[in-house]
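Think of the structure tokens as a kind of shorthand, similar to the way a musician reads notation: each symbol stands for something richer, in this case the local conformation of the backbone. In the example below we present two proteins back to back. Begin with the first one, reading the sequence and then the tokens, and try to describe in your own words what changes along the chain.
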Amino acid sequence: MSTENEMIGVPAGKVTLTDRRTRHSWAVDVPAYELAPFPVTQEQYARVTGERPSTAAGERLPVEGVSWQDAIRFCNALSVREGLTPAYRLGPDAEGAEWDAAADGYRLPTEAEWEHACRAGTAGARYGPLDEIAWYGANGSGRIHEVGGKQPNAWGLHDMLGNVWEWCWDLYDPEVYGTYRVLRGGGWFDEHWSCRASVRRRSHPTFRIDDVGFRVARSRVR
């Protein structure tokens, strides 16, 4: 099984995103990139930041209770730790972060990258039977679970659905929701209809919620 320090190569492709509220769909070309096989764990987050923000305690549990701002700060800190160029230029509050697309450091996936990776070449709502691939409301016993406990998708990515929602880089709908950012994947307490590859959720970049975490990506910089 992959470790949290390995990154998985995600091939280039095209994905069609859909917003149920507006009934708008749009196609996005996704260049090849790398994605972590698991959400960031509490142990990894503490090792990089010295902080343990999660409500539940466990080294191999996904870190939760982290804001979008916390997530991009972690990405920069991990990049510096590994001698890479940070992907984000941060202002005083991090809300106005700018992404340096030429940087080789860690970052959050875009929501197109996230959905493309989640689907792993499949076209249905999920990449496998839900009980086999995800911790969610019906099988999660009302709690978060260690990463990697369910079957991965065809590209070796675990917990893309269920366990924790994952922050993405993108603004959700700036004309309506301002600075709110996209969440993907569904969480440990959600009903089955939230644990689908296409489902979008939103949250303010400063909010910390007990079913929201993140995983890191890296661009393939030429």
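Once you have a description of the first chain, move to the second and do the same.
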Amino acid sequence: MSQPAEAAASPSRVTADDLDQAVLLAVTALQEAPATAWGGKAGTLEWDCWETVEHLSDDLFAYAVQLGPRTPPLDGEVPFVWESRRPGGPGNAVHADRTAGPAGLLQVLEASGALLVAMVRTTPSHVRSYHGYGVSDPEGFGAMGIVETLVHTYDLAEGLGLVWDPPADLCARVLARLFPNAPVDTDPWLTLLWATGRTELDGRPRLTTWRWYGEPRG
């Protein structure tokens, strides 16, 4: 279990380097999964582990392209086609070639993460673009990508039998950026899991509905 960070009460801003670190840690952890395990469920999700990595890759891709137009949209998503390949499966624009195996799947994840890292790093901070949880800025989209990466890797680690314990300071920064009402005196990683509906927290019941707040913060 990660330990609460002293800086969690006043964390620094979320950066492209933070996102790059999150994706690298996730890919490194997932490389340890047995090749035969990818068809099992990802934690409490209804998707299998392969589909969940595709979904995560798609999230990172979608956030990157949302910042891509010269004039990003403020009232809707960039209109790629998102579609599910089976009833109940995730609706993605990104799908990995199954003949490439788990190594190819993780390459898709790494590449999608790199797209978002590049956009967060190079897009001027004043740029705004649409998200269903609030029009956001490059830092916000980077933070969203980190949350998606950390919590879906948690889901995957449960399904694949892996250990996953991301850095407390990274968790604290994305909590401060996207979950301003989350407690600040609890373990940042456990707090992030609680804020995304995955666990109880120090007597607080598991959330059945949740959202983040993407609007820029000062």
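Compare your description with these statements about the second chain. Confidence is low (pLDDT under 50) at residues 1-9.
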